[in-house]
Fold:
Amino acid sequence: MDTFNTIISLFNQHLIRGIFISVLLIVIVRKFYKKIDTQNSIRIVKWLLITYSTGVVLNFLLFLIFSEDSGNYLDFWDRAKGPYFVAYWAMFIASCSSLLLFSKKLSGSIYFILFLSILMNFGWLFESYVIHITSIHRDYVPINSYRAYLPFDHELLIVFKGMILGIASLAVGNLVHLTKKKKETISSRS
Structure:
């Protein structure tokens, strides 16, 4: 279970946190560069979002069923039912919101995918809020060290990762598009 939690955490840290920048980049490319195919890039991002949300739900269920460490279990319920429970459940719902992409009607809209990616990023911001505020509230972290939580370098890194992911998904999506086009021309000649 710890391995699964680590995988979800790494997936979140390196792909999901900057994915709204990736989708925004794809939207901009789609708007201004008509020759570049963005459909496959959107499919890649859509399935990354769905995979992450499915993993979050599975991780949540596995934690509830197989929780061995009572300390973590109590921390979980303290955050889920404590004074900041609204932020915790907002985080959870935002993280799972991309399960709506299983609907063909909703997943066809690039702007809906952009909205969900922004909503999912609010999810990890709520997570950060819940962790830091409850830690300060419970005196786990001295109030003088709140400066460690002020954002700047971390957010720039997230934007950079999002740009890299967007460029990579555009490149892979166009490679897939060109490969399909090439196979179609070869099969039409035969």
Remarks:
- The two ends are 52 Å apart (CA to CA).
- The chain is about 80% helix and 0% strand.
